[in-house]
Amino acid sequence: MTRDHLTDFLSHAAALPSPTQILRNRLFEQPHFKKAAVLLAVVPQSGRPSENEWGILLTRRSANLQHHAGQISLAGGGFEPQDADLTQTALRETEEETCIPARLWQTFPALPAGFTPSGYEVHTIPALCRNVPEIRTNPDEVAEAFFLPLPLALNPENYQTRRFKHNGQSMETPVLPYLHHDIWGLTAVILYGLAERYAVYSAGK
């Protein structure tokens, strides 16, 4: 996948559908959600990316955190009053967790929000880094950072399903095994939604 192709896809991704995310969001009925943002951070894995050399930055949350300890997630966190917008939230939190400066990212329109059982409205900000970034994880928040190959994430056949229950309702939601990692919850839904959007995008080309 060339950089131009990837950039064009990320530029249009917000307008493309993710049926899985729409269905999952219907499980949540809550009048007030706290706003949060995560960075769907795509980086080259070498100096000259080819189809198999793009990766999505994921983190394993510290076991010491109060919420979602040990889970695989996209870097991000809650909106703060000093943030100009949710893109700044995602960039600020990513820098706090990984020490990757906000200036290195080219960002794109936010994907439609996904909701969590803990009461968060999570906005996903696609972003592209021009070069392979240096990562220095914040041990208070991140136990590990790694790159999920983009072609793997964009192939729906790589996903499994797991039944998710909330308020007496349930549905099959995607999970993604990768190496020793179990990627599930909203992170897996976001990644699978990206695959759904890419399928629509590719079909239109």
How would you describe this structure to a colleague?
A hairpin with a 2-residue loop joins β9 and β10. The chain has five helices and eleven strands. The chain is of the alpha+beta class and 205 residues long. It has helices at 3-12, 19-25, 86-98, 150-153, 185-203; strands at 34-44, 54-61, 72-73, 76-78, 105-107, 111-115, 120-129, 142-149, 160-166, 169-178, 181-183.
Brief rundown of the structure:
The chain has 205 residues and is an alpha+beta fold. Helices cover 26% and strands 34% of the residues.
SSE layout:
Layout: H1 3-12, H2 19-25, E1 34-44, E2 54-61, E3 72-73, E4 76-78, H3 86-98, E5 105-107, E6 111-115, E7 120-129, E8 142-149, H4 150-153, E9 160-166, E10 169-178, E11 181-183, H5 185-203
List the defining traits of the structure above.
205 residues; alpha+beta; 8-stranded mixed beta sheet; 3-stranded antiparallel beta sheet; 34% strand; globular
Give start-end ranges of low-pLDDT stretches. none
What about the largest sheet?
8 strands, mixed
Continuous helix count? 5
Give a count of the beta strands, DSSP E runs of length 2 or more. Answer: 11
Distance between the termini: 14 Å
Spatial shape: globular
What is the assembly state of the chains in this entry? Answer: single chain
- What is the element string, with H for helices and E for strands? HHEEEEHEEEEHEEEH
Estimate what percentage of residues fall within beta strands.
25-35%
Rg, please? 16 Å
The amount of helix comes to 25-40%
Strand-pairing-aware structural class: alpha+beta
Average pLDDT number: 89
